[in-house]
Amino acid sequence: MKLENKVAIVTGAASGIGRAIAMLYAQEGAKVVVSDINFGEAKLVTAEIESAKGSAIAIETNVAKQEDIDNLVETTIKSFGTVDIIVNNAGIMDNFIPVAEVTDEVWDRVIAVNTTGPMRIIRKLLPIFLEKKKGVIINVSSVGGLQGSRAGAAYTASKFAVVGLTKNIGFQYAKEGIRCNAIAPGGVNTNIGKTIDNPSKFGMERAMSGSANNPRMGESAEIANVALFLASDDSSYVNGAVITADGGWTAY
User: Fold this and answer.
1) How sure is the predictor about 105, in pLDDT bands with cuts at 50, 70 and 90?
2) What digits encode the pLDDT tens for the residues 131-163?
3) What is the mean pLDDT of residues 58-87?
C-alpha cells in the first residue's frame, strides 16, 4: 500500500473529488481525516471507510474560519499524533459573476474558501512538517486557475492564486523535505454545481462559450488517482507542479 501509516487530512471530503480521495487514501493504508462543512455527510464517508477496515475520523470544518482550521489540525494531532499529507480540496463556485457585477460579499466569500482557507491550513501545518523535515501538500486548483474564463471573476482569481501559492511554497520549502503540488481538474461530475445559485447570464454565456471543446467530463475517481500519485513516493521528484487532469480540454 502506497500510504501505509500516513495521516492525511482531506478538506471538502464529504462528496465528489474529496470523498474519492479520502476513500482511495484509506484503501492505500492512510489514516484519513474527513473534513467538511457538511458534518453529516462527512460521518457517512467515515463510516464507509471503517466498514472497509480503514481508519478515519470526521471533523466539521468551515475552511473560511480560522478557529475551525485550528480545531481541524489540533483534533487530528490528538487522534493520530501527526499529519503527513494535506489535500486542500474544499471549494465553491461564484455564480459565473463577471467583474462588473461582482459584489464584495461574493468576492470575499469565494476568496476566503478557495484561497485563504488553504493558506491558513498550510500555515498551521508547516511547523509540523518543518519539524519532521517531511510533508506533502496537495492543492486542488482548476483549469479555471490556468485560463481566463471557465467561471466568474472571483473563482478565476481564487484558483489562479492557488497555483501561485503552490509554486511559491513548493520552491521555498523544497530543501526542508516538503513538497507542494496542485491538481487542475477540468469538468468533473461532482455536486459543486450546488454552490451555483442564480448565475449571471452574461458571465455564464461567456464562460461556457468554449465548453463544446471539452472532450468529455471526468469522474472523481480519476482525480483521486492523481492525488494518490502526488501523495505517494512515486512523485518524490515532483514539486511546485500543477498537474492538469481535464481529458485534453486545455490542450485545444
Assistant:
1) very high
2) 999 999 999 999 999 999 999 999 999 999 999
3) 98
- Residue 25's pLDDT is 99
- pTM to 2 decimal places: 0.96
Q: Is 25 a catalytic residue?
A: no
| Domains detected in the chain | 7-244 (3.40.50.720)
- Alpha carbon distance 106, 41 (integer Å): 25
Instruction: Kindly report the average pLDDT of the chain as a whole number.
Output: 96
155, 173, 237, 252: the active-site residue: 155
